[in-house]
Amino acid sequence: MVGFMFLERIERLMSGTADREWPGRFASSIGRLLAGCAQASGVWVSGLVFGAVVLAAASLASAPLRSRDIAGVGQAAVSLSSGMVSQANLGGQSQRDRVVDLVRTRNGIVVRGRLLAYEAEELRVRVGEPPNEREVRIKTADVDRVDVQLDEAQRHGEQLYRRGQYLRAAELLREALGREDRGWLRRRICARLIAAQLALGNRVKAIEVFLAAVRSEPRFVQWEAVPLCWELRCADEATEKLAERLVRDTEPAAALIGASWLFGTDRSDQAKATLAQLKAMPVMPIAALAELQLWRWAVRHVGEEQLAQWHRRVERLPAELRAGAYFLIGLAHYHRGSYDRAALALLWPALVLRSERELSQQALWLAAKAELAAGHGAEAGTLLEEYLDRYPTGPGAEEARRQLDLLGSGR
User: Fold this and answer.
1) Taking the CA of residue 230 as centre, how many other CA atoms within 13 Å lie in the half-sphere pointing to its CB?
2) Cα–Cα distance between 89 and 176 in angstroms, integer?
3) CA distances (Å), 87 to each of 84, 99, 366, in order?
4) Percent of the chain whose predicted confidence (pLDDT) is above 90
5) For residue 40, which of 35, 59, 86, 332 is within the disulfide window of CB 3.0 to 4.6 Å?
6) What DSSP element (H or E) covers 125?
7) How far is 65 from 44, CA to CA, in rounded Å?
8) Cβ 357 vs Cβ 385: under 8 Å
9) Separation between Cα atoms, residue 57 and residue 28, nearest integer Å
């Protein structure tokens, strides 16, 4: 239901707006990105409707799906022990040989060995026994499935995280992090640990975990897990105090996080100046995220031409950096009264892209509000039901139930 509504938003925009260029590009992008996300089990939407969305969106844009278009989103399903979990753009290395992993290629070949690295372009697997062991390289585009044997603490922690038992999940994931030596799995554990801490409201701990990973393993940072603030609000007292220290840090990632959480505070000007400096850095993730964070200062008064530039900018970004950007674009459209466009942009971080739980929750809530403001009761109802299904105790849950009651009564 949500998937078909998503497609309807695209069709409505393409037929009902004078700005025909960006919806067409959006339809092309959704065909590629949803194909990659669905294949990597990264789209958490009720039902099996997204296959139809992928095909229809691609058809709207007359754009064929190609492996190189979705390589950045993750090609293969990754089975971590007994649980199906997706993972994209992984990288790292290992020093020990403790387990046997399986890599299944699209032409049916099965490679057994130690998965040393899982990167955007290739996998590296150590096969054989000493002294005859060797390293096999497999193109990521040729991989159909990867079965990875996990440490028991990580396996259990992953399960508890998916059940919403974040406190115990965080304890187990921290334990697993201390034992795992493979860089690409450490990267995943860190991302899960950060997400668990954020779900618990422990922003300071989440920031500390991320920065510890940056300082110890800078090559393997999972930037989609960086704990930034994308909303137009101030930080809590503890986070603001930490941010005031981080914004002066010589580590760019620390300064980025600090500046992000000082938006709307007495140090907002300092934060904006710091982000402007980081934007000029040659390090792409830092520079790109700093540029996107600067949009927060312009969201309430951005013009149509600048918004079009923002859309084009997002399309050039890796998928893991897009969630916050689409949230800000949706927020800008919402403030301009362009509710159809607001809902469409907000559905990316809400339902499609892997993003921090709080951001996804806020995006889904705001998308529902946009549909209500646009007078689309059926679509709003679908999103409100999705919100309650995902976040039954979320901050908007009571209001969502009230709105659903009003929609049900026809008022």
Assistant:
1) 29
2) 21
3) 10, 19, 27
4) 52
5) 86
6) strand 122-127
7) 21
8) no
9) 7
- Each as own residue / partner, the long-range contacts of residues 199-204 (CB below 8 Å, 24 or more positions apart, any chain) are 199/164, 199/166, 199/357, 199/358, 200/166, 200/167, 200/170, 203/227, 203/235, 203/236, 203/238, 203/239, 203/261, 204/238, 204/239, 204/242
Tell me which residue of 295, 181, 174, 172 sits closest to 229, measured CA to CA: 295
> Is the confidence at residue 36, as pLDDT, over 90?
no
| Type of residue found at 142 | D
pTM of the model: 0.75
Domains contained in the chain, CATH given:
2-72 (no CATH), 77-150 (2.30.30), 228-297 (no CATH)
C-alpha angle 367/204/152, rounded to 5°?
90
Q: Count how many residues are written for the chain.
A: 411
* CA separation for the pair 81, 248 (Å, rounded): 42
Cβ atoms < 10 Å from Cβ of 53: 24
| Residues 6+ positions from 167 with CB-CB distance below 8 Å | 196, 200
